[in-house]
Amino acid sequence: MSGFMLRVGYGKTGRLRYLGHLEVLGSIDRIVRRAGLPFAVSQGFSPHMRIAFSPALPVGALSECEWFDLMLTSLVPVEEALGALVDASPRELAPTRAAYVDPRSPALGAWLDRVDWEIRLVGGGLTVDCVRAALDDVVSSGHVDYLRSGKPRTVDLRRTLVSCDVRGTGPDVLLGFKTRSSNDGALRPDVLAGAILGDSRLEGASCELMDVRKIGQWHEGEDGLISPLDLAVTTSA
Amino acid sequence: MRLAREPMFDRIEPLLPKVEKPTRYIDGEWGAIHDEESEFRVCLIYPDTYEIGLSNMGLAILYSAINSAEGMACERSYLPWVDMADLMRESEVPLLALESSCPVASFDVVGFTLAHEMACTNILEALDLSRIPVRASDRAEDDPIVLGGGPSVWNCEPMAPAFDAVLLGDGEEGIVDMCRCVKDGRSQGLSRSQILENLACVQGVYVPSLYDIVVGEGTTPWGVAVAREGSNAPAKVVKRVIPDLSATDPLPSGIVPFMHTVFDRQAIEVLRGCARGCRFCQAGITYRPVRERPQDQVVAACCKGLDRSGYDEVSLTSLSTTDHSECAQILHRLNASVAGKGVRVSIPSQRLDSFGVDMALEVAGDKRGGLTFAPEAGTQRLRDVINKNVTEGDLERAARNAFENGWRRMKLYFMMGLPTETDEDIVAIPAAAQRVLEIARDVIPKGQRGGVSVSISVAVFVPKAHTPFQWCGQLPIDEVRRRQRLLVESTHDRAIRVSYHDAETSLLEAFLSKGGRAVFDVIEDAWRSGCRFDAWSDHFRYDIWDAAATRHGYDIPAIASQGTPVGTRLPWEHTSPGVDPGFLEREWRRALDGITTQDCTRTSCVGCGVCPTLGVSNVIAGDRS
Predict the structure, then answer these.
(1) CA-closest candidate to residue B312, choices B344, B338, B340, B339
(2) Does B34 touch chain A (CB under 8 A)?
């Protein structure tokens, strides 16, 4: 079925960072309906809105670079569609940009394979040096073992961690890292943070607060990183 | 002591990563009202988790009514799940209202929905977490005034000591009158007891502290509540009623949750009240008369509600939606207006005798999930006793109709322990399910029968106040268990799934339904001993309840199964839903004789007394025939 694919960038900020991925999906479905956009509906036993999302953001993580692709049955000028979506959104989940892309574009979920994260750590005795030392220790081991839903898992840092650094701003320690995902797996920010903070690597220091933020997400092309809106097309009715 | 009004989200935010479903506690939903201007503040609390409370239509109506009133702001709160409640106590954070994150104990009025008997320990838990004394008599001058209301107020004596005042009946006007009374009293500098005296003058309001419990000749051991001499309290409190539902807003609150809630859809109340006259049913008495919304108002509200909320489902709710005189037309018009939008139109349950082919085709769109019918009893004899005026033929016709129109799953609700019930009535339950299953096998082609299922769910009858069965004792628990075994043993076809309610839960429900004010001591003891979320089967601890009752000298099974002679003065006689007590007695005698009574919206007046007592009448939009 032909249609017009509107790609929308949005944020998950403030208190809404605590929404689970399914809650975000349901909320955006309702935002689109409230916005009154001419969304396409799938055929079949259980008709639903034709919409696809970028990969799930962990509960509690902030982001201003989330995306969804919404299929429309008729062309609505981008500014008008974006305005209607913003008006129908809670501020902390509001869209920030949009453009039409080719409806045959690859699905966002698998296509977005490069993600940059930043984690702000606050706690007693935490310093840039001790976090850096813990990070170096984790990276040098080449992998992280962790539990997910009670089952032991391993993530290979050589495949999934592109680079990382540790900086300090006042009492905070900022851990920045770039990741690459593939069919072999992805590095979740909480897994890396858990490895750094666990196993007594911090020698007496403790982390009381941890803010996880997604900084950006792209597709890794042959010539470099491609942003979701780099695929924008000019569409006419 | 009244807590200071200050936002405290920063105190619960560090707890959010440690709890299940943090979305319960974050606010910011679409349609929530943030009013920082009004000086008089009300917090309404649903005594269960967010996802259950948000779906409650009564609370949504009251939230909207108070926020629309001049000079008042209303916020919401829900009982935090046990993980969060424990962390809040550990971190010394009181219960907060959702919208402002200010302490509940900083509000002028705190209102609870008495949704059902099993929520009683949750009300105490919410008060305690708020740092409001659980007994009204222990509250300080400046503590919030604690109100109660809702479906379970019809024997509110067991919970009466927790409330400063209780509203009986329709709440949308009554709650505003009560809040205004408190607001005026506070601004005039009246004392707490003077404010309560004034509240007792508001029609439909019961102020427990102005009534003494008197045990005497002709009463049960629980006694009766007698208005104190010299007080303003009426001898009998008669409920509030909205005469014309169409004069109220069909779309009260537009709050759209982020998380999945139990009824995650746009709900429109299409009618209030039911005059079918089922003799076990408390709502059938206490919500009279029947008031239908006109077709145009319902359709317009559904469309506006869907646009406003973004929901993909609209539900026509009421005690018995298919009884609406224009139900088929409403369904038809709604389906036409939502075509192509991936929106479902649903009704919560269907009556066997009013679920026609036209309606079958209109509900649920292309989705044919399950259908639910409630024959309530297995034999015609027992259905006549309880005045459930449906026949075997109705069940078979409805089943054939549903299976022919694409449904594959059917759920049938029954009750066990009804007055005059015998083993024959129990054995007839799986037999009725078997006939339905055979109809399915007859109607559905062989290759498609895989998905066919018929399930029967059997509740234990709990005698309720202000019903024709209010004098009955509950079936003793050992006999309940024997009949549950008989039910299972009489079910031979593996395609029929049987489930039944937990006997101990029903037992406690009966104890709380029958008891008087002294039961509060047991409730408080059970709560202090760790009971909360009693309606959640994994949290229900009958052993704790039993021990608490024993400590106070009560035998729960004996009290639950004890019948009361007709003519005895009952613990709830000082509250009235408008029904004539003589009507209930007459209905009880007719039940024993197996004589049915007709629905007054289809025939003539049956003399229940509600219309003349309350000065109202049934409002039927079209023609019920």
Answers:
(1) B344
(2) no
For A24, nearest residue in chain B (alpha carbons): B258
ipTM of the predicted structure? 0.90
A46 in reach of chain B (CB within 8 A):
yes
Architecture of domain B9-238: 3-Layer(aba) Sandwich (3.40)
Whether residue B221 lies within 8 A of chain A, CB to CB, comes out as no
Query: Both A64 and A25 in a single domain?
Result: yes
pLDDT 10s digits, B237-265: 999 999 999 999 999 888 999 999 998 99
Same domain, A138 and A100: no
> Does the beta-carbon distance from B366 to A45 stay under 8 Å?
yes
Q: Which residue of B has its CA nearest to A15?
A: B26
Cβ contact A26–B311 (<8 Å): no
Alpha carbons A122 and A172: distance in angstroms, whole number: 5
Q: Does residue A22 sit in the same domain as residue A50? A: yes
Does the pLDDT at position B501 exceed 60? Answer: yes
Domain locations along chain B = 9-238
Question: How many CB pairs below 8 A link A and B?
Answer: 75
Record the tokens describing residue B41, joined without a space.
């503040």
Is B23 close to A46, i.e. CB distance below 8 A? no
One domain, residues A99 and A144: no
Average pLDDT over residues B189-195: 98
User: Does residue A43 sit in the same domain as residue A92?
Assistant: yes
- Beta carbons of B531 and B545 less than 8 angstroms apart: yes
